[in-house]
Amino acid sequence: MNELAQQLFPGEILLFGAMLVPFVKGKLRSALVVLLPLLSLGHLLMLELGHDATVSLAGFTLHIVRVDALSRIFGIVFHIAALLCCIYALHVKKALEHVATLVYAGSAIAATFAGDLISLFVFWELTALSSVFLIWARGIDDPERRERAYEVGMRYLIVQVGSGVLLLMGILLHLSDTGSYGFDRMALDTSRGAPFIFVAFGIKAAFPLLHNWVQDAYPEATVSGTVVLASFTTKLAIYALARGFAGTELLIPIGAVMTAFPIFYAVLENDLRRVLAYSLNNQLGYMVVGIGVGTELALNGAAAHAFAHILYKGLLLMSMGAVLYRTGTVEASKLGGLHKSMPLTTFFCVIGALSISAFPGLSGFVTKSMIVSSVGEMHLPIIFGVLLFASAGVCDHSGIKVPFFAFFAHDQGWKVKEAPKHMLVAMGIAAVLCIGIGVFPGLLYEYLPFPEVAAQYHAYETTHVLTMLELLMFAGLAFVVLMKLGVYPPELPAVNVDSDWVYRKAAPEVVRDGYSLATYARLKAWSAVVAVRSAFLRLLSVHHQPPRGTLGEPWSPSATTLWAALLLGFMLLVHYA
Amino acid sequence: MSGLKAHFPVLLVVVPLLTAPLLALIRQKQVARALALLSALATAVIGWGLVIAAREQVEPLSYHLGGWPPPIGIEYVVSQASAFVVAIVSSIAALGLLLGTRETRKEVTEGQQHLYYAAYLLCLAGLLGMAITGDAFNVFVFLEISSLSTYSLVAMGNRRRAFSAAFNYLILGTIGGTFVLIGIGLLYQVTGTLNVQDIAHRVQELEDVAPDSHNLTLLVAFVFMIVGLGLKLAVFPLHQWLPGAYAEAPAAVSAFLAGTATKVIYFQLLRTTVVFFGAAHVFGALRFGTHVLMPLSIAGMFIGSIAAIYQPTLKRMLAYSSVGQVGYLTLALSFGTEAGVQAGLLHLGAHAVTKAGLFCVVAAIVAGVGSNRIQRLNGLGKRMPIVAFAFVLGGVGLIGVPGTSGFVSKWALLQAAFASEHYLVAGLVLLSSLVAVVYVWRIVEVMYFQAPPVDEKTTHDNLAMVPALILLGASVLFGLFPDQVVELAADAAHQLFLEPGSLPPLPTGGHG
Fold first, then answer.
1. Is there a contact between A121 and B402 if contact means CB atoms under 8 Å apart?
2. ipTM over 0.85
3. Is this prediction's pTM over 0.95?
4. Chain A contacts of B396, Cβ < 8 Å?
5. Domain residue spans of chain B
6. How close B148 comes to chain A (CA, Å)?
């Protein structure tokens, strides 16, 4: 048993187990998709710290498994997330979505344990190629949205694979400069490849201006798909940054911007899953700042915050998913008063909301305070201020706005059933974990990259608790006052233009126009050629009947011949010169 | 080598060449089919036998036709590269016939089937002869044999458009062939010989005598040969015959052509630039790589792939994707380095297997749903799960996802670009693979996310999937365990690059 465990790489059970899913049906399938993450988690826990494995494949010696404290904590939380997602998605009938979830989770886990850049790249791409199915699957649920799901999915895929392409470029440059493709700590000036790798990670970590795919794609996925998507890709990028670029100072301002700017969008947004997608950016910002600070405390904080974040963000998205599942919408302007018909979902959502707001006693508090403390230790007053402001902002939009508009606010008269049992179970587990981490932070701290540093950290110091409570009070007060004065942005169905307009609207137009322009120009050039030729033939009074070219074959042989002649002349000129 | 094995180089060409007229005379389609398949399989065995033979030797094997020594007699040369090319071509031809067994019954008019098999084998003989011969005029002869039979094969497609596609191809192919002939004629005028190696020596001498002055005749010969081969290879902007020909030909012919025709021409392009005129001269003094081939390749890579996104049918999409892939092939050559040619040969193999496999999948799709229009593929993941999966497998190979042959060759291409410090070009290669993601995943979305039609019946052509799965399986196998092939390609490239002077000079009596 143990022998076998040493042979497998983490995530392998999920990747190959996923292939079995289409062949079983009903209860058996449900059992399988829940069992696989559990088995895989058990496998991971059997591997000891320091376990390494290499394979020779495709001409490379790949360092495919590296278990250390940093990879293990991400691996564990990815497994928990996979388990929750699988339970939460049990209502899904199509095998496709289950397969995509398992492959996606499996490749994210495998990427986490990759000790070299090439294995990382392989699994990095696999996460992209598998996860897009979770967005497209929305089109199966709701045929009216198929077109939209297709376009969103394609945009998402291009961004994700684009990140992989940059990564590959970076790896090649890194390899040619340093002669190694090991995935270890590097700096931006280690090699010419490092900046490419940095940007590749940055895309998946949703750096400012590279972030739009999150808000574009996540809210468009299926009920369970959004939960799955939000658990892996961005946190994998956080892990990769922590592994490769810890202590890179550039990350501090980047992270600070990430924490602050989404707040404005989140406050304006009407789609509650999109609000959560914006707040995802904000949460990632804290982790990025922590990685940028790079001290042991900060890295502990980043890892711990990622751990807690996956759980409470998952919980919030699950509760919104349940609302979507029952009511068919998550638009704030259409919801309200659901606490009567979905009391348990409301309760779980509030737990998630309190966690993300870092309410003392819940998971967000014990992890975020580590990052904030580490920034305080570094004496970065501006960054510190931004983080505090952002904390208040999170509380405002995710902590208050989401539960308030969905479950309270004006009763819109929804008469729906409580969320299905399996969803409640998944939310329940997540909620228990949120509370558990908040009450017994020591359990989590043991698994952090630097456990001895973590052991000396005390989250529940009076100043921490008081600062946080004051902030939360202030945010609550602001929300109430603004609502009473009627200045809080009203929830209206509208589109907020973000920087992704450039590639969503402008770029495709240019490409499409360019393409049709080229066709047009070609047709024009062709007709000119035809005119000249028929004039010539008329001159020779030759009866000529060319085979009809169709639209699909816009070039006649004569046009290509003309090109051949032009090329001939061109080459003579170039080579003779 | 002894016995029959000693005659493998000539048997390679003779077997299909002699079977072809036999088939035309037999007029019995069942027998014709069996004989054609047998002949192609025998050729494939010979092809792989030549690879083994070439691997055992350091220097290329020379086979003297009729016992006449070169340069007067015609010589067949089994080098690492030519053996590699003929092995791939003959194997794909055999698999194409295996596919054709059931497809052609529907696609080719009753009563013409024996002719179809005859043309198929003639085409194969021409392609193999072109790759293995060491005589420049022979190259032209075999080029015409393969081209003429290809035109008739394309015209056998069951839609009326097949005629116009074949006509289109005929005109352009003939122009290409004529240009090649003009080039060879001029070369003969300058060097007084037709033996490839001999030409290489004499051109080298001429270039050595006056390295800075241009020998105008040589230059014109070079340009004619390149443009002629460029037409046959479908190098952008001379690519427009290709989509029509691939899309309208019978399915088995598309698979066969996509995996072989352009590949053999590419090998000729390698020989023309690297051997005939000398890599140092072509890529150094003439700057052919950076000033002509590289921009055209990059344009082809993008324009071919972008056009593929907008095609209404699978065959057309794959055909335009081939235009893009030819861009990678010529780009690899344009670096003018050994690493580049190695990458080119690897991509030749990878793309041949992948694209031929994909066209086989298309044949199965056409057999199943009666059309290869992309709109009609809705729900194919449900209706024909194995077929749809095979398409995805081939598609990720085109993109160059790790674990497929496409990744191995793309990796080699990128390494070659880095080695010659073309960083921007490497970036563009990666960028263009993003376009491939779009055209492949677009099909995946249709197959897996659109509801299957309720009333339509699908027929399953399991036989068509056999060659498809063999080819795509080979692609994955090569993607996972590429060491042998990478080594072979490296040796082949090295052999091509050996200075003509380092090969034993040929006796120079009785000509010129």
1. yes
2. no
3. no
4. 129
5. 287-500
6. 17
